[in-house]
Amino acid sequence: MNTQSRMASDTILMTPSTISFTTDYGLSDGFVAACHGTIARLAPQARIIDVTHLIPPGDIRRAAAVLAQTAPALPPAVHLAVVDPGVGTSRRPIAIATHGTASHPGGSLLVGPDNGLLIPAAESLGGIATAVHLTNREWFAAEVSATFHGRDVFAPVAARLSAGASLLAAGEVIDDLVRLPHPFVEQTPRRLIAEVLTVDRFGNVQLAATPDLLPSTALALTVETVEAARTNTFGDAPAGALILLTDSAGQLAVAVNGGSAAALLSLTPGDRVTIAY
């Protein structure tokens, strides 16, 4: 990383400050409230946008996809994300500054564990400008629990950054971030095989493939062993019909008009779906 990009990332200041918050903490315990309280004490001016706290426990890939697909719709922010099955181990706590995009010209910041969670969101926000291993313990809680870094490490760091503190004061610059494996996508003649990225609460199945991988003339397809139609909207097919469409994140998705494609095809994230055309 060059000096110019480091300097640029060091001057990011959110006004008004915003912190987005994504976790697998759920809503039945006090974990989310404890993190909110930490932020409120250190950065009372910060506005917190809760993305979701219902990520399946430990599902880093799901959290990464949700954050990457949501962050561009949010204002420039400090994106605090904690899905951290390796909490308390040798995995590093990190913060990332992004280059920015046309809608986020000043860039954004991301805070969380170095387990691949933050990388897709950073890429959706213009790419990584600077990454820092959080080693400045003065920014942490006075006592750091081995099992709750969300409250004791990540929330305090996010609060300080949202208040305009220097990213480079948070720790040491690094360039060897952990990345998630690329999801499986394979094309063969008249066949596309793609990994399931996510399944939403409606049972819509988002694939790792993008629409350009299917010929525009491929309107009648078979998904697994079920006939499907390629449509623009859910309502373009009869109720109960299996369809393939482009979702709001620009990915190919398998859906059922008025039903659940995940239930119909018995699909979960990580499964591979075969589309014949």
From TrEMBL:
Domain S-adenosyl-l-methionine hydroxide adenosyltransferase C-terminal: 194-274
Acyltransferase is among the record's keywords: no
Domain S-adenosyl-l-methionine hydroxide adenosyltransferase N-terminal, residue spans: 19-168
Any single Pfam family the record assigns to this protein: SAM_HAT_N
SUPFAM superfamilies (alphabetical): Bacterial fluorinating enzyme, C-terminal domain (SSF101852), Bacterial fluorinating enzyme, N-terminal domain (SSF102522)
InterPro entries reported for this sequence: SAM_HAT_C, SAM_HAT_N, SAM_OH_AdoTrfase, SAM_OH_AdoTrfase_C_sf, SAM_OH_AdoTrfase_N_sf
Family the UniProt entry places it in: Belongs to the SAM hydrolase / SAM-dependent halogenase family.
Name the UniProt record assigns to this protein: SAM-dependent chlorinase/fluorinase
Organism: Dactylosporangium darangshiense
Lineage of the species this protein comes from: Bacteria, Bacillati, Actinomycetota, Actinomycetes, Micromonosporales
